[in-house]
Amino acid sequence: MIQLSFFSSRTLALYMARTFLVRTVAVLAALVVVLQTLDLLGESGDILAYPGNGDAALWHYVALRLPQIVARFLPFSVLLGTLITLVSLNQNSEVIAMKAGGVSAHQILAPLVVASLAIAGFSFAFNERLVTRASATLDRWQAVDYGPLPAAPRGAQDVWVRAGDDIIHAASAGGRGAATRLAGVTIYSRQAGALRRIIIAPQAQARLDQGRVIGWRATGAKLFDVVSGRLAPPSSFDFGAGVSPEQFTLSNVSADDRSLLQLGQEINELDAAGRPTGPLKAGWWHKISGPLSAVLMPLLAGTAAFGLARSGALFVRAVIGMVLGFAYFVADNFALAMGNLGAYPPLLAAWAPFFLFLMIGETVLVRTEE
User: Fold this and answer.
1) 105-144 in b/e burial notation, b at 16+ Cβ within 10 A?
2) Where are the domains of the chain?
3) Which of 101, 103, 185, 296 might form a disulfide with 8, Cβ 3.0–4.6 angstroms?
4) Residue 76's CB: how many other CB atoms inside 10 A?
5) Is the pTM of this model over 0.85?
6) CA separation for the pair 138, 130 (Å, rounded)
7) What values do phi and psi take at 321, rounded to 5?
8) Angle of CA points 71, 295, 278, to nearest 5°
9) What stretch or stretches form a coiled coil here (predicted)?
C-alpha cells in the first residue's frame, strides 16, 4: 500500500538527507579547491607585479574570491551531490527496497528537496552577507591593479553623464537629492558634435528652484576655449540643465555588489528619476530565484534513482539527470542575459527557467515512476 505522508519514515528521511548533504559538501569542497587554485594561478602574476605584494596579498585575494566561487558553484555541487547519492542508492538496491516497502518516488526525493531548501536558505544569506561585500571590495582592489586598497567610496566614482550635446565627467558624486555634491568636474561643451569649450572645476552642487533641482553650478571653474585657445580666469559656471542627481549618484549600480534591500532602494530611486531599471529588476528577482535553483536539482536528477541498475541503463539515466541540470543553468543564464538586454521582462527573465524546469522534472518523474 502506497503511503500518503510526505516522508515515509523519520529514520529514512534523516539517512537520505544526511547522505545527500555530506556528498554535496564534499563535491563543493573539491570544486572550490580546484577552481580557486586555477584562478589564483591566473591572477598571481598580476597581484605580485605590484611592488610590495607578497604572500599576504595572495591570501587576501583568496579570501575575497572564495565567496564568489562558492556562490557560483553551489548549485552545481547540489546537482552532482544528488546524482552521486541517487546512483549509489540505486546500485546498492536501496531504492528497490524502499519501493518494495510502499515508498513512492516523491517520498524518496522528499528528504533531498527539504535539505535543498536549507541549502537555498544558506545560499541566500551567504550571498547577502558575504558575496556582495567581497565582490565590491575585489572590484575596488582590481581597479587599482592590486595596489593599496582604497577606502570604501561614499557615493559613485568616475561618473560620465550626457546633457544634450555636452558630456559631463565627475571624479566622484556623493549625497542624495538636492544635497548631492560633485568633485573633480570636467564639462566638455559641444555644438553640433564639435568640441567648443572645456570647463574644469574642483566641485559642483545642485541649483534649486522651489526645492527642485534645475541644473548644476560649478565653483572655481576654469574655462578653456578650444577655438581661440584662451583660458579664462576661475569663476562660477552653470551647466547640466535637466540632469537629475540620480544620474550621478546611481550611474554605476551593480546588482552583484548590492544586497537585496540596497538594490531595491536604488531601483526605486532610479524609477523616480525616470531612468531604465529593467536589468536591475531582473537582478533583484534573480537574487531570490538563483538560490532556489538548488531545490530543482533533486527533481531534475531524480531519473538516476529509478530503473534497474543491472539493466545497463543506470549510466544513461545519470547522464540524463546531469543534462537536465546543466540545461537549467544554460537556460537561466540565457534568460538573465535577455533580461539585461531588455528583450525579456524582469520577472520572466528571473523566474521562467525555474518554473519551466520544475514542470519538466515533475513530468519526467510522474511519467516514468508514478
Assistant:
1) bbbbbbbbbbbbeebbeebbeebbeebbebbbbbebbeee
2) 10-148+279-369, 156-249
3) 103
4) 17
5) no
6) 12
7) -60, -40
8) 65
9) none
